[in-house]
Write a structure and sequence with these properties.
Helix content: 25-40%
Distance between the termini: 27 Å
Strand order of the largest sheet: 5-8-3-1-4-11-12-13
Number of strands: 13
Largest sheet: 8 strands, mixed
Protein name: DUF2971 domain-containing protein
Shape: globular
Number of helices: 8
Length: 224
Amino acid sequence: MQLVKFRRSPVDDPFTVALLRTSEVFLGGFESFNDPREGIYNSRNDEWSAHENAVLLEKRRIRIGCFSDGSRMHTDRGYDLMWAHYADSFKGVAIQLRFNKELSEKLREVNYVEWEELDREQRQGEGAGLSPEDLLTRKSRLWSYEKEHRLLIHSDDLVRAKTDGLREDSSGTFARVSIDKVLAGCRATSETIDRLNQIRKDVNGDWAIEKLRSPWMPPTVVDP
């Protein structure tokens, strides 16, 4: 599967630079999601319960990485929204990633459901039977343009060091990836391309650098 991470230009975003230099992606908690209603539910019409509290604590033990299915990037116009929202209106980059076998087995495709169904789960208790992993991979269909897949890493994987490619320190939790390609948006500046080439040279990377000619045309390879 071809998964991508949309980011701002490495000229403007130190987190993009860190990903390219270290080949590591940051894994965060669900409470930092863009949609504050994600991953929640109430079991009895807004009344708190011991079960809800247990599920909440379990969800907080899961670290999450968010990525997009990039396999139809050049034929599906829905990706224009990803470029606009997450890659600084086509001035940023889409980084094509690969995961090792153990991490690949922990990837889950997001299940997009109608808002009304999600609302019933969250406000009327219909989500009480869902596992923490299911709750963390359900979103309103309004977000379906993201074509999202999530890497779910339980804290036990870190404590027991059972999963190759994981690292945790005082700054957070990170997963090791391989970078296959960096695609620059059609509005990316020459400074962005130069910075990509410099980073690739610094880390002795073998990833390709391409640039969109326009939102509706295939990319072209950028010479170093």
